[in-house]
Specification:
The chain is of the alpha/beta class. The protein has four domains: about 30 residues, no CATH class; about 270 residues, Response regulator (Rossmann fold), CATH 3.40.50; about 35 residues, no CATH class; about 160 residues, 3-Layer(bba) Sandwich (Glucose Oxidase, domain 1), CATH 3.50.30. Helix content is about 35%, strand content about 15%. It contains 21 helices and 14 strands. The chain has an eight-stranded mixed sheet. Helix 3 packs across helix 9, helix 6 packs antiparallel against helix 7 and helix 8 packs antiparallel against helix 11. The structure holds FE2/S2 (inorganic) cluster (FES).
Length: about 575
Amino acid sequence: MTEPTGLARGLTNYGDRDFATYLRRSFARSTGISPELLGKPVVGIAATPSGFNNCHRMVPDLVEAVSRGVLAAGALPLPFPTVSLGEVFLSPTSMMFRNLMAMDTEEMIRAQPMDAVVLIGGCDKTVPAQLMGAISADLPAVQLVTGPMSTGRHRGVRLGACTDCRSYWARYRAGSVSAEEIASVEGSLSVTAGTCAVMGTASTMACITETLGMALPGSAAIPAVHSARLVAAEASGRAAVGLIGTKIRPSDVITERSIENALRVLTALGGSTNAVIHLAAIAGRRGIRIGMDRLNAISDETPVLVDLKPVGEGYMEDFFAAGGVGAVLRELKPLLHLDTIDVLGRRLGERLAEPIDWVDRAVIRPFDAPVSRVGGLIALRGSLAPDGAIFKRAAATPALFEHEGRAVVFEGLEDLSRRIDDPALDVAPEDVLVLKGAGPIGAAMPEAGYLPIPKKLAQAGVKDMVRISDARMSGTAFGSIVLHVAPEAAVGGPLAAVRNGDRIRLSVAAKRIDLLVDDAEIARRLAAHQPPTPPARGYRALYARSVQQAPLGCDFDFLAAAPP
Ligand code: FES
């Protein structure tokens, strides 16, 4: 018997298959869609517009354009809603809900009768969540991103969320920007629909998705409000219909080799540290583990090629005009696995064999004249982070790469906000700021790793210090910041043992982060550690019970796949 297609898929079982078919058809007729069209293959469209997600403001237009492409290719488009995650509107953190969105996406793809799906996402957690869900559902799928914001202007200076938000705020804290000016800047940072305007997490994940092969070639960097984005949406709808024929599934596209390509592009972009977590979670859905040593090897042999904020100067609109992901991939070609396939069924090698029109070398550098000879991100290990930590060397101060200092410890986020600007805080520029209790279990891993420079030091002109935490950092942030320390403090990792005045040593050359306290003393301190009380009910209880540490992508243990 041939597998049912379209609305005949996945019928509810009442013990009478013909009745179930009849019932579904009769209810489908109430949509006003013709019986002829209702009989076609179905492409679901995971739509994520939300009043709480400014980055997805153009999603309704994208749904319309995808639908156009699906219809033109002879199938029936059926949009459906899922959870939508607007980064700055969620509490305690958006990270807590990424897995909820992934579960929603997976289960709605599974539960509803569709032959393929187009996933529309953009803001930081949405694309990882959709990819995680799509891999686990493993139905033919195309990812479409909402695209980046265009820049605004303030007193003749180009501004984009959210690297410029941070640099103006740091200057305001230091007293060099007035209250009136910061209020005026506020209205010039996020001026169009779309995701953050720099190479933050959303744009990094968009570029990674194109590299993986899950989004159409050339689609990652198109600005949200550019007409080409609607054309890409229409083409994504057509591609999804094509996948129904070829039966190429996410598990054919997302492989160990395409993930390695994505890691290479991540380092060449000087991309977001968050992408390491999301890629680990995506890989985990295929049972693939990203090794710290492999990440470091890739980072050491892959130069940073893209001169965009927060690492460099440009914005995503410049990256698009400069040639986008395709231009970066061509520079990296000798290092890439060229036999990976994309949602068009093409090998990466075939794509890269096509000539490229023009590349703006001010934005996307050639391999032999890079922004930096080594990649943007590295993993650290050491007595402070036995299971690893992440350091974005591309956005750090080289003078702090080899640094030893005295720990100034904050026991949690409340403690940090209460004391960081206290004039009596015992802190000097060469100290190391340490934040505990901000890991996946401790606080659902907020983007709090960009600890502010204590006000009295900022006003004295200190721009950067070594800062360490089990938190994440916004992809738009910068500084000499050690993140994702694992195991986190809340589960009794060595970070929980750090006390004021301990010595800590960072070595980027040795890729180590060490607490210079002897092992017996660390063990003695940890013996008294008290884990936080887990929530008693609902999704938060499930989260606390099931979330894994950062090296496993903070996915739930019951959602990750066993190694193949
Ligand atoms: Fe949505 Fe930055 S807030 S991408």
